């Protein structure tokens, strides 16, 4: 499998997590930053290799073979992110681009040894689940901070937006995985929230709250 084919499989996998039907070629094009015509050509190649099922106007679906392959790419990416943060002291906003390159390493033996070396982690530095060597994923019970009621507290377990700018914003507010966050107040006008975190109260927008996952206490 080429690097490009791997990137397409991973993109289809991520898009399929939030869709019950086939993934559109336009959605894939937006995620991989390519023209729709180029996406259609690649999808046809993937279908010939039985990684996906594709019918015009009905979208793209991963086959069982394609789903496992996509999970293995995600597995490599997230294990490398853990390694970079825990062993090389990268910050969580620096690791994505480096892991994008490392995820294409083909050695299954290396990845399994990396998994064991790290103690078989189930989550990456952003709180996303890491598939095991068989493609199994441990489900994380979580909800968006914006859905938490006033007076309720939750533990930060992940982010929906893993962009560098968002993670750097969280660092400035001293919000990280494991932080306890309490909803102090909600503004009806714009749904902004006053939250208590690390013994201080701060005001955050609904957009911020809608990109933070928490686990109820």
UniProtKB/TrEMBL annotation:
SUPFAM superfamilies: Iron-dependent repressor protein, dimerization domain, Winged helix' DNA-binding domain
Pfam families xrefs: Fe_dep_repr_C, Fe_dep_repress, FeoA
Biological role: In the presence of manganese, represses expression of mntH and mntS. Up-regulates expression of mntP.
Record has Nuclease as a keyword: no
CC terms in the record's Gene Ontology section: cytoplasm
Subcellular location: Cytoplasm
GO molecular function: DNA binding; DNA-binding transcription factor activity; protein dimerization activity; transition metal ion binding
Domain HTH dtxR-type, chain residue ranges per copy: 1-63
Keyword line: Activator, Cytoplasm, DNA-binding, Manganese, Repressor, Transcription, Transcription regulation
Chief localization: cytoplasm
Protein name (database record): Transcriptional regulator MntR
Organism: Flavobacterium saliperosum
Family: Belongs to the DtxR/MntR family.
Subunit structure: Homodimer.
């Amino acid at each position: 499998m080429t690097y490009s084919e791997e990137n397409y499989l991973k993109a289809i996998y991520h898009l399929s997590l939030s869709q019950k039907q086939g993934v559109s070629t336009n959605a894939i094009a937006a995620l991989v930053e390519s023209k729709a015509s180029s996406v259609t050509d690649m999808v046809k190649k993937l279908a010939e290799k039985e990684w996906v099922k594709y019918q015009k106007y009905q979208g793209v679906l991963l086959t069982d073979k394609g789903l496992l392959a996509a999970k293995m790419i995600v597995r490599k990416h997230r294990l490398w992110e853990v390694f970079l943060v825990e062993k090389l002291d990268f910050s969580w906003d620096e690791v994505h681009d480096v892991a994008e390159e490392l995820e294409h390493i083909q050695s299954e033996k290396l990845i399994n040894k990396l998994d064991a070396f790290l103690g078989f982690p189930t989550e990456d530095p952003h709180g996303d689940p890491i598939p095991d060597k068989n493609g199994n994923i441990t489900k994380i019970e979580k909800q968006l901070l914006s859905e938490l009621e006033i007076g309720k507290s939750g533990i930060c377990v992940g982010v929906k937006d893993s962009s560098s700018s968002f993670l750097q914003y969280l660092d400035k507010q001293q919000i990280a995985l494991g932080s306890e966050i309490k909803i102090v107040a909600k503004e009806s006008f714009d749904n902004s929230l006053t939250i208590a975190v690390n013994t201080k109260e701060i005001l955050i927008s609904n957009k911020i709250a809608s990109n933070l996952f928490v686990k109820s206490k």
